[in-house]
Write a structure and sequence with these properties.
- This protein is an alpha+beta fold and 180 residues long.
- The protein has one domain.
- It is built from 5 helices and 6 strands, in the order βααβββαααββ.
- Strand 2 and strand 3 form a beta hairpin.
- The relative contact order is 0.23.
């Protein structure tokens, strides 16, 4: 296998800043997107007072970060049961990693997208069954989705790689290899 690209996101302050800036338009995009999902009007009708809602948003966000990384970890184990999964927080970034594990592009795409899809779907169900108000749903779902910019960035990088490439997860990012 030939190494095509090596991405060290954890030590690349410039890329981390760019991803943090990219989260702003992503937040706007996802707020509009999730607002359109609420057109059916199934959410709870009693909006909490502003500061209570803000506390709910912040508390839920912290819990969702943990769940998000646990989902990554579960899919790492699903696709490489012998691989070790590590969790951490560095440079303002929470992460799950399975160092030295290799995955096909398709499996790595699933690992990257599983938290976004699972958490967004779960939040929508909470809204649909009336357990979240419209504003709490749209803000919580939007903030979480905007926080997935690192996953979307990695997805973009592996999508650009040749079809028969494989991805190695590393403690600081990922390596993309081309099978010759």
């Amino acid at each position: 296998m030939k190494l095509l690209k090596q991405i060290n996101l954890m030590d690349d302050q410039k890329t981390i800043k760019r991803l943090n800036l990219a989260a702003i338009p992503a937040l706007i995009f996802f707020y509009v997107f999730f607002t359109f999902l609420t057109v059916a009007g199934h959410g709870a009708t009693n909006e909490p007072p502003f500061f209570i809602g803000l506390l709910i948003l912040m508390g839920t966000y912290i819990v969702l970060i943990i769940i998000h990384e646990l989902i990554h970890g579960a899919f790492f184990k699903l696709f490489d049961p012998k691989g070790k999964v590590k969790f951490g927080f560095k440079n303002g970034v929470a992460y799950a990693t399975s160092p030295h594990s290799f995955y096909s592009k398709g499996k790595f795409a699933i690992i990257l997208l599983a938290p976004f899809i699972g958490i967004s779907g779960g939040l929508f169900l909470f809204y649909f069954f009336g357990w979240l108000t419209v504003s709490l749903f749209t803000w919580i779902a939007s903030v979480h989705a905007a926080s997935c910019v690192g996953d979307f960035y990695f997805l973009y990088l592996i999508a650009k790689a040749p079809a028969n490439s494989c991805v190695e997860d590393t403690e600081v990012g990922l390596n993309i290899y081309h099978e010759e």
